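Entry for S-adenosylmethionine complex. Fields follow.
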Amino acid sequence: MASYDFTNEPCDAQFLIPTLNILGDDLIGIELGVGQGQSTLSMVANCDNIKKLYAVDNFEPYQDKLKNPYNNQAAYEAHEADVEFDKLKFYHNLKHSGLEGRITVIENNKNECVNGFEDDSFDFIFADAQMNYEDTLIDIETWYPKLKEGGIFSMHDSDNEMVKIAVEKFRNKNNITNHISWYGNTVLWMKINDSDK
Ligand SMILES: C[S@@+](CC[C@H](N)C(=O)[O-])C[C@H]1O[C@@H](n2cnc3c(N)ncnc32)[C@H](O)[C@@H]1O
């Protein structure tokens, strides 16, 4: 019996979950940047139609590329102790969630493990690693081909202006003009076809 119940827990993916619930059966998804696993476990606990969720995190120290405007220092720094704690908590949460069978953990850099997946592999992609202009653009450009037609591309921290600019740049460059949702610090849209361009 599971010790932790992740149904109806608030998490970074909470504005994506209702869309996943009605996306179809046997969904295969991936989350880029899982931290302590709050979103990973909430998505799987609340969406019975998720067959497999890949959970990607390198659990390595990093400095956010976003700068604090007052001192020009990194807006956020994850030190060794922080990421070590997140990793321990992630595996602890996973072990006691009762959801291990539907989650595959990939301990790797999100920019490197992308090559291990075929194009059109995923029904949804949720990016929540380093949400600044450069990384947002890298995440969309590298991972969008891995999304199936009819799949959902979603990113957290969309209330950050840099994320917004990067998403709009990618969509404009590829002539993607279909509906897009900006709500509750989460952006999402459906990949209509290779040329929803
Ligand atoms: C904001 S946290 C993720 C929060 C999580 N999605 C949640 O909802 O609880 C960002 C995570 O991204 C991971 N990360 C940062 N850069 C990464 C990279 N290049 N590859 C893989 N993971 C990365 C960090 O280790 C950190 O755990």
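NOTE: The longest strand covers residues 147-156.
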